[in-house]
Write a structure and sequence with these properties.
Distance between the termini of chain A: 10 Å
Shape of chain A: globular
Structural class of chain A: alpha/beta
CATH class of chain A: Alpha Beta
Largest interface: A-B, 62 and 72 residues
CATH architecture of chain A: 3-Layer(aba) Sandwich
Largest sheet of chain A: 9 strands, mixed
Largest sheet of chain B: 5 strands, antiparallel
Strand content of chain B: 35-45%
Number of strands of chain B: 19
Number of strands of chain A: 11
Structural class of chain B: mainly beta
Helix content of chain B: under 10%
CATH topology of chain A: Peroxisomal Thiolase, Chain A, domain 1
Helix content of chain A: 25-40%
Number of domains of chain A: 1
CATH superfamily of chain A: Thiolase/Chalcone synthase
Distance between the termini of chain B: 35 Å
Oligomer: heterodimer
Strand order of the largest sheet of chain B: 7-6-5-8-9
Order of helices and strands of chain B: EHEEEEEEEEEEHEEEEEEEEH
Number of helices of chain B: 3
Chain lengths: 385, 324
């Protein structure tokens, strides 16, 4: 990959909750930002630029929030950019921030992503009836459920694999003090007994609606070398594709496959299953774990569910996936992608606390958005590449 | 070319806003007829108070009452007010510097004509009769003949409106009225539906048939102009059973939302499956359109009430595998 070295030197996030009525959107962002700055040991005066991301405007009903957030984000007198890529926005926002450092434009960039789902209704926002069109849309779950059904049919996966993922991520969340859901006692059996919402997706296989924010400080090599345990950015990749096209593979989208291939190449990785120690993958509905394991190239097509079923993706497995509890346990949509990138950084910094993966040296952060049409991902490592 | 089809669409929602401590105190003050400003690190008093100081980035903690009257610093005339503006008759937008404040505040001034407004004129708040702790507690401004207020009576307070509880949240209804315009290709599709026909278009490069047709093939980026009339029979590629109710939903759950691949088409579209128990719907199910009575037809996909099973055997998986 071209460009100068860059690293994450500060990570901050809020305690994700269903409702944070005690803070404004600005105050929510500041909780994450203040923690990231303290973690990095820098102040606002050390920041050269700010990059902000959030989910689509209809989700919170705030047009161009970057306008009124400028002073809260400490952006007065500095470049302030906003990134839009639907649910993958947290990931692509971090990548845009990283690129400003890798390009040598700035030395220290603050990036933040947020969502206050309690102020709106994402299900409604994703299902606004359009004239002339059949009103059968039913939110994100309604959109993705048919593709999950296709995956199950195509791969021949047993029906309980989704429940394995849900139970694993909910158990992992108990180790993460920032996680929203704290559902003790979630088991494969209890997930399978939960209500069928968007058949074949059950209630316990869906993500919650969360209020939360995440922030990162990304710095150049000189700054990073002076910092405590930086997470070096080995490679980043983003790809997009049309929402619908004849013959488009909605189960294993080409954009995701191509982004992953470029990512592994640029990170010097030939066998991701062997060389990646922990993965934070955007899994808003449980079945997307095996689907994305295949899309990312950790397994051959049709084999992802076998990795999940084998226990390899558990916290003590060979490829722990979503040790933080993942999107299934905390979903402030605009921030969810950045949380994946942040958790990957925490793992290689050895700062993940109770959900630390032992000996983690290289980790993946991944996000997707829209109708599986935007992909953003990075590899971070404990050593510079 | 015939004009494209258009239809009104209103997107509206009552969003809630958590105000946070600073704006919450400001709004709580308005309920008690007190206007609070925030003192920023440069010593200025800013109204409404910013939540964070633009220089130090700390939360603004010193809130000070300012007068409910002041001076017009600049203005513009609004000859034709639109819905949801503070006044339903012609008015002026004014930037008011309240006595005791160092910044200006945008609001409406209630005067009969533009001749009644001038920079430097004195104005005062006209409070709403019923106040709820919202910016609308200030109904508007009106001309005043009182001299400037030298000393504001109330004592400074920290993070609390003088004599009032801070507001924690407000409801902000948002409504956007659009005219939705279908593309020329979609318009042709919907007009054909009004005649009981299904018309797609073929890409001249990849030869794929798109239904509904697009302005351009999403893969090849070229216009798709060759019309292809399609039958109203097809195959369910994949589907979801929607059991979850939600705001704005127009079909009573549970219902089957399915991708239907019409015979001769290369892309499936979403529609409703009925005439079969939901738990018996399957990938590969052969279906036909059930049309509403002809007198109910218009230019919409809803002319097709739903799809129902034909008596044919299921399609082979191989025929739908490339459409998932």
């Amino acid at each position: 990959m071209g460009g100068q070295r860059a690293a994450v030197i500060g990570v901050g996030q809020t305690h994700h909750r269903a409702r944070r009525e005690d803070v404004s959107i600005a105050g929510l962002c500041r909780e994450a930002i203040d923690r990231a700055l303290a973690d990095a040991g820098v102040g606002f005066d050390d920041i050269d630029a700010v990059v902000v991301g959030k989910a689509p405007d209809l989700f919170e009903g705030v047009m161009m929030p970057e306008l009124y957030l400028a002073e809260a984000l400490g952006a007065a007198g500095k470049p302030l950019l906003r990134v839009h890529t639907a649910g993958s926005v947290g990931g692509s926002t971090a990548i845009v921030a990283a690129s400003l450092v890798q390009a040598g434009v700035h030395k220290r960039v603050l990036t933040v992503a947020f969502e206050k789902q309690s102020e709106s209704n994402a299900m409604w926002a994703l299902s606004v009836p359009v004239p002339f069109i059949m009103p059968v849309h039913a939110g994100a779950g309604g959109y993705f459920a048919p593709h999950v059904r296709s995956y199950i049919r195509r791969s021949g996966a047993p029906a309980h694999v989704g429940a394995i993922v849900a139970a694993k991520d909910r158990q992992n969340a108990l180790r993460n003090p920032y996680a929203h859901l704290r559902n003790e006692g979630t088991t494969v059996e209890s997930v399978l007994e939960s209500q069928m919402l968007w058949d074949p997706i059950r209630y316990d296989e869906t993500c919650p609606s969360s209020d939360g924010a995440c922030a990162l400080v990304i710095a150049d090599e000189d700054t990073a070398r002076a910092a405590d345990s930086p997470a070096w950015i080995h490679a980043t990749a983003m790809r997009s594709e049309p929402t619908t096209a004849a013959g488009r593979d909605q189960v294993n989208p080409a954009a995701g496959r191509e982004a992953a291939a470029a990512l592994w190449r640029d990170a010097g990785i030939t066998d991701p299953l062997e060389e990646i120690d922990a993965a934070e993958i955007y899994v808003p509905f449980s079945w997307f774990e095996p689907m994305w394991l295949e899309n990312l190239g950790f397994t051959a097509p049709g084999e992802g569910w076998k990795l999940t079923e084998s226990g390899a993706t558990a916290l003590d497995g060979t490829l722990p996936v979503n040790a933080s509890g993942g999107v299934l346990s905390s979903n402030p949509i605009g921030a969810s992608g950045m949380l994946r990138f942040a958790e990957a950084a925490l793992q290689v910094r050895g700062r993940a606390g109770e959900h630390q993966v032992d000996g983690c040296r290289r980790a993946l952060g991944h996000a997707y958005g829209g109708g599986s049409q935007f992909f953003a991902m990075w590899v971070v490592g404990a050593e510079p590449i | 070319m015939a004009e494209t089809l258009q239809a009104p669409i209103t997107v509206s929602f009552d969003y809630t806003r958590s105000t946070g401590p600073v704006l919450g105190a400001f709004l709580g003050g308005l309920r008690d007829r007190v206007v609070l400003g925030g003192r920023t690190s440069d010593g200025r008093v800013v109204v409404p108070p910013p939540e964070f100081d633009p220089a130090t980035h700390e939360q603004v903690s010193e809130l000070v009452p300012v007068a409910a009257e002041g001076e017009v610093v600049s203005w513009t005339w609004v000859p034709e007010p639109v819905a949801a503006q503070p006044l339903d008759r012609p008015f002026a937008w004014v930037l008011v510097r309240l006595d005791g404040a160092d910044s200006t505040f945008l609001h409406a001034l209630d005067v009969a004509s533009a001749d009644d407004v001038e920079t430097g004129m004195r104005v005062r708040v006209r409070w709403a009769d019923e106040r709820a702790g919202a910016i609308t507690d200030i109904a508007c401004f009106e001309p005043s003949h009182a001299p400037p207020v030298e000393e504001v009576a109330q004592q400074p307070s920290r993070n609390q409106g003088a004599g009032g509880e801070p507001v924690t949240g407000v409801v902000t209804p948002v409504a956007l009225d659009y005219t939705y315009a279908a593309s020329p290709e979609e318009s042709a599709f919907y007009r054909a539906l009004a005649d009981g026909r299904v018309v797609g278009q073929r890409c001249p490069v990849c030869r794929k048939v798109y239904v509904p047709p697009r302005g351009a093939c999403p893969v090849d980026g070229v216009p798709t102009t060759e019309e292809v009339e399609l039958p109203d029979t097809g195959t369910v590629t994949t589907f979801c059973i929607v059991n979850v109710p939600f705001l704005g939903q127009r079909i009573q759950p549970p219902y089957v939302s399915a991708y239907v691949l019409l015979d001769g088409a290369d892309i499936a579209f979403l529609h409703l499956i009925q005439g079969i128990p939901a738990d018996e719907v399957r990938m590969g199910l052969r279906v036909r359109a059930v049309w509403r009575p002809r007198e109910e037809w218009s230019t919409t996909i809803e002319n097709i009430s739903h799809f129902e099973p034909t008596s044919e055997p299921d399609a082979d998986y191989a025929t739908i595998e490339g459409h998932l």
